[in-house]
What does this fold into?
Amino acid sequence: MTPGAARVVAAHGRHVLIETADRRRLHGHLRGRRADIVVGDRVRWQCAGDEAVIEAVEPRRNLLMRQDAWRSKSFAANLDQVLVLVAGEPPFSESQLARALVAAADAGIAAIVGLNKTDRPAAADARARLAPYRAMGVTVLEFAAKAEPQAARALLLPRLQGRSTLLLGPSGAGKSTLINLLVPDAGAQVGEISTALNAGRHTTTSTLWYWLGPGHDSALIDSPGFQQFGLHHLEPTRLAALMPDLAAHLGGCRFHDCSHRREPDCAVRAAVDAGQIAPTRHRLYLELLDELQQPARR
It folds into this structure.
């Protein structure tokens, strides 16, 4: 085997699965001290018997992460877009959706929203809750992956073509159904990765890279579900600029450091009063701002 560059397609602790330029997959481990390495990373490696030793991580185009008051968690690197999957059943958390979109905007990654289970009665309420996101320019794709699989494939595959897409979503939104629909051999790939990493059931809590076809130019990256999506890696003063509906009105406030809470002549609050910003979105902004302004815990 000739060492060189490779892509990380799965990671579990210090152990990773890399895919080389000639499409071989090798179990690898990190040399020396533990490094921050995630799925999507481009790495340099050397042979170590029939395995690989990761020597270095190449500079990243981007990195999607979340950080709460105690620790940070990186999802994946070198992404082209994020697909945030929601559904009416169970009702999605608008706070979690907003956090995912803010994190993607901070990382410079395009984001789209997928509304799944549109065959269910609860889809009407979910559609109404997503109206402010459509109004501020977020692409919302509607489908029923289980009830109408072929229509869902026809809608989604063109959006995924030629891109590396991270799939985010809470439990119950239909991520597994969607992955099995778009990646017919997904189960086999999970088994291969689990065996290579000797990770067993822990693979279900790992981020995994799937190729969507034999051309190896389109990928879907599955991430484990999460209950919290902290944004403590953000500066509070940047928050409004990362929310498109609020950002459209920045610069019109009397005070340049306006927090958009109670200051007089606030353009953002005026836009809320005028119906240009949904009140729910302004409340979400204040919730996130309060969180980011809390002192760091030690």
Observations:
- Residues 88 and 121 are 8 Å apart (CA to CA).
